[in-house]
Every structure is written in structure tokens, then in C-alpha cells.
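TICKET #2291
ISSUE: user wants both folds in one file
ATTACHMENT 1:
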Amino acid sequence: MTETRSPAPPLFSVEPGERPSLLGRRCADCGYVSFPPHDFGCEACGALPARTEPTVLAGAGVLRSFATVHRHSGPGIAAPFVVGEIELDAGPMVRCVIEGETALRIGDRMRALACSIPASADREAKVEVRFEKAAEVDR
């Protein structure tokens, strides 16, 4: 059986039976939240790296833009598929693949889900975070 791996450095955590949480950083000086996490200080106020700390971000937000990709030659995903920009409730904007065949509208509530990407001849199996439109009961 092929081992499944997460991205390095870690971008998210997934507890069994739970939705993924994204791993970011928060500035102790100005409160700015960044994703993906990095160790070069605050992008907003310039605080030194020691003034930023790891923070867990809920995988929920609002759809701000999206597009359907009709031609794609990269491995791991077949066209057509949808990519979008989600403004997380904690502030940062993330770009991601959107799962599901649901009609999308700007302003839709979105939620993260962990997707297992199977191994192929040219890559190993992995888990990645994608987003889906939140059900009405999640809103």
C-alpha cells in the first residue's frame, strides 16, 4: 500500500471525523493573520518573526471569485474543474480547488474538506484541502 503524505511545511491538520483546520500565523503586534504560514515576520506591520505565532484557522469563509478551468495539463486533476478564492473568516484569502457540482455564486459560504488524492505512476498519494459550498444547515 502506498503511503499518503501531507504537504511540507504543514498547511493544515485533520482530526479523524473532523473538517480540516488551516495552519497560519498571527502577529502579536497588529493581529494580522497570514496563510500560508511563514517565518519572515509580519507582512502588515513589519514585526520581526519572533512576534508572530502559529494559529489555527477554521476552514470556513466566503467565496469571493471563481473560474472553471477547461484545459489543464498538470497531473492530479482532470479538467474541467473549478478554482476559487475564499476569504476565510479569520481574514486571509486562499486559492483552492472547489469540489462538487453545485451552482456557485459570489458570497456563498464555503467550508474546507480533506480530499485523498490517489497515487499514480508519476506521484505518490497525498491529502489536500479543497473547499465546497456549505450546506444551508452549516450557515
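ATTACHMENT 2:
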Amino acid sequence: MKKKKNIFDIIINTIIILLGILVIYWAIELIFGGSPELSEFNFGLIIIIGGLLFKIYRETGEIKTEMKYFSINVKESFNKTRKDMGSLKDDMSLIKKKLKVE
């Protein structure tokens, strides 16, 4: 089952990718004696990790919600099947009575 991407997913992915590029750039600058402070670098890492965790937990919540609705639909379909089988049995017994078959 392929999940449709909505605008929220696109925004989260874009932010994570842009911050990832920025942190990599800051890391390269830090290695070669550049200007970003270590606190800026750490802040970028924390935001990236927080964004990834948010994305993972959000997707997990969506999967749980989809599974809940799936299980409800399966239960409803089994109930409908049970009712249909009951009506088929009633019809078959009526046919047997009319044909006088036991």
C-alpha cells in the first residue's frame, strides 16, 4: 500500500534535508578552522534529530490509525458475510420445502 504524500510530509522532508546540508557545511568549516561556533553545530544536529524522530513517530501513528480502520472494516465485512450466509441458508431451506427435498 503506497502512502500519498501530503504538504506536511514535503515540508518536513525539505527542512530535514536543508538542515542536514547546513550541518554538513558547518562540520566541514569546523574541521578546517571555519567560523561557526560549536553551539550552532550542536543546535543544528539537535533540530535534525528532533525532526527525524517527529517524522518517524508521526508515520508510526498514521500506520496504527490505518490498521485500526482496516481491522474495523474487516470486522464489518465478516458481519455482512455472516448475514448474507444466513439469508442464503433461509433461501435454501425455502427452496427445499417447495421442492419437497429433505
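RESOLUTION: both attachments delivered.
EXTRA DETAIL ON ATTACHMENT 2: Residues 7-99 form one domain.
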